[in-house]
Amino acid sequence: MSRPDLAADDLVVTRSGHRLLDGVAFALRPGELVGIVGPNGAGKSTLLRCLVGLVAPESGSIRIDGAPLAGLSGPERARRVGYLPQRFEPAWDVSVRDVVEIGAARAGGRADLAAAIEEGELAPILDRRWSQISGGERARALLASVIATRPPLLLADEPGASLDIGHRMALLERLRGYRADAGVAVVMHEVDLALRYCDRIVVLDRGRVALDAACRDAAIDPALDRVFGVRFHRIEIGEADGPVLALPR
Questions:
Q1: Residues near 47 by beta carbon (within 8 Å), at least 6 away in sequence
Q2: pTM of the model
Q3: Contact 211, 227 (CB under 8 A)
Q4: Which residues of the chain fall below pLDDT 50?
């Protein structure tokens, strides 16, 4: 199967009279890692849930490789789009092995479980229960369960929210590495990490796209200051490391 693009146009989602998404357009291409950032309530998670088919927009379109997302069966969606949720709490205290195998089975077809387990360095904890592993180990297990079938698109909703900075950076490194074979989008709160690890960022504000640009361009765009309500200081620390944002005292 060829690697599809994901394209959404003019998405509108309203809940209890409040417009969560207001005419949002979004595109994800193979070979790029896109960070989706914005203040609380900006619509980041709602957008991701629309893109994986968990929320149906009231208007607008979502297409994968030109085909309407709504027309794809559940297993076909799972094969084309991997989804890493913000939280995962199993009803039973399953093992790490169970989590990886169940996640891979959702997409049907063939799954390279051995490769996913090796890449996630999960072999030492495969038979441990979910309650017995750390947040970083859980994040690695969830990612392995999603990438075992090698979906050509991977969407992650704040996968590092409960992790310390070291584990968040390690997770972003893995997502950045996976973009060699797929298009990856990740919802994040940390603008500085998004600029460091992503190729492009999309900034949402009150349900609308306030900025969609390559990270180097986005880092100097005044829209960042306006959306987050702070005055960022831009500090160049070298081409290899990328730009860094620092808040004034």
A1: 8, 11, 21, 24, 26, 36, 187, 204
A2: 0.88
A3: yes
A4: 1-2, 242
